[in-house]
Structure formats: C-alpha cells, structure tokens
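>> received
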Amino acid sequence: MATIDIKDVAGKTVKSVELNDAVFGIEPNIHVMHTVVRAYRAGLRQGTANTKTRGEVRGGGKKPWRQKGTGRARQGTIRAPQWVGGGTVFGPHTRSYDQKVNKKEIKLAMRSALSGKLADGELYIVKDMDFEKPCTKDAVALIKALGLEGKRICVVIGNEDIEAFLSFRNIPEVNILPVGDINTYELVDNKALVIAEPCLARIEEVLA
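>> returned
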C-alpha cells in the first residue's frame, strides 16, 4: 500500500497513513477520464438557445402580392428567411447536451485522477481543518504552510464544514469542494489537491 504524510495546519508532518491501492494506486485510465470530463462539461451547458423558424414567427399568413403580373419576384409570405423579420434557417433550438456515462466509468475516472495526483506528488492530506470561525487569514496561512501559495488548488472538505468553506471561498485560485460533490473534472483541474483527513475514509468507502 502507498503511504502519505498527514500535515497539520502549520505544514508539519504529524503522522503517515496507508492509502487504499484500489483507489490511489491504479494505473490512470486517460481515455475514461477524458470521456467523463467531456460529459461533465457538456452537462454544464444550458442548452437554452432557441430561434424561430418561418412557421413559428408571428405574421406572414397572407401572400404579400399576387403571384404574377407585378414584375417583382414571387413571394408566398413576408416571414420567409430572406425577409427582414423572417424565420431563421437551421438555427439552434432548445436541447439537452447531457451525455450518458456509466457509473463504473465515473468511479474509474475518479480513481484514476486520485492515483495520478498521488503519483505526481500533487496530493496533500491535512489533519485538521476545523476552523473555530470563518477566517480567510487562517486559510491563507494554511496554504502558505503547505508551500502552495500562488498555485491553483482544489480543497476537499467535509459536507458540514461551513467554517472551512467560508474561510477558503474568497481566496483566488482556490476551489472549495464538499466531499460529496467531488468529480473527475474538479480533481484534475488544479495544480494541487488538498484533502481533509476525515474525508479520506469517505472517498475510499465510495470508490473502493
């Protein structure tokens, strides 16, 4: 089993812990990670763009002039696409961009992301993030103690750690994420992944 040092808020090693190889020790599957991240980002799209066709635009029910004898080109409606105010041809319509991904693939992608972070030395475990009250200064001090100042960071905290969430949320380049909301995209879109120690058991329980 792989081991990793547990840091305290001062950046000092307090102990080491063994990590589950089924979660943190696999060969990253880049293809599955790519598939899952594409599906996740596609799902973020609203898909609300919409245009009206010639059959949906208001008006244009009457033929603007008779078919023959005027010297002008024949027209059937003033809402045809070539008219100002006419319908749009092949324009976007409301749709869903969701892509189907299997649950096993989602878990494999997250295991691959975590294993890759550990192998690259970009995974940090912090023993205690129990802030007595929301304090951005303490959160910044923790980041400095870990030597991550100026880097894009993802911090994984417990679902109920409101004080920690409020402490980190105003720091630029820091993405704060409850453990119940982790996903492959958020795990890889950073230069350092910081996880609170109590969250480790939850992650291994779900992904192992």
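>> The chain has a mean pLDDT of 92.
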